[in-house]
Amino acid sequence: MLNIRQGSFEEAIAVKAGIPEMHGSETVKDLLARIGSSPYLLLVAEVDGELAGFKLGYETSGAEGTFYSWQGGVLPAYRSGGIAKKLLLAQESQVAELGYKRITVKSMNRYPHMMKMLLSNGYQISGYQEKTSPVDAKISFQKLLIPA
User: Fold this and answer.
1) Transmembrane residues, as ranges (predicted)?
2) Exposed e or buried b per residue across 89-101, where buried means at least 16 C-beta atoms within 10 angstroms of its C-beta
């Protein structure tokens, strides 16, 4: 049974360690340094009590009413079960309830499944940042949130 709940940074790091696409070895300190004093939301997905995925975002400075969905992922063993979409929808719902008007996220050409999910859930492309290779280019998306 799937359960989505507020999670801890330690849980997010544990999930990230099992996601091949998420390179690096971030620590709780690294995540907190990025978020700073901004309000944040960290959700985890559990399947039958086992961690399966996470979604982490925070309020952006300088763009009032905007929430940035920074990181998220689902462990390979739990993919194709709709968990990423359920985390996305849970994040949208909770940040709308908190009064945010817009949610933004970045992805790359190397993650076509993520881009398809965003587009099919009402996100619009809002920017493109070239890199040395097209697969590394960053694509920005945004979605206007409907107040709860």
Assistant:
1) none
2) ebbbebbbeeebe
In CATH terms, 2-144 corresponds, of 3.40.50.300, 2.60.40.420, 3.40.630.30, 3.40.50.2300, to 3.40.630.30
Q: What are the backbone dihedrals phi and psi of residue 97, each rounded to the nearest 5 degrees, phi first?
A: -65, -30
Phi, psi of 121 (to 5 degrees): -110, 25
Band of residue 32 on the pLDDT scale cut at 50, 70, 90 = very high
Distance CA 128, CA 148 (A): 30
- pLDDT tens digits for 12-21? 999 999 999 8
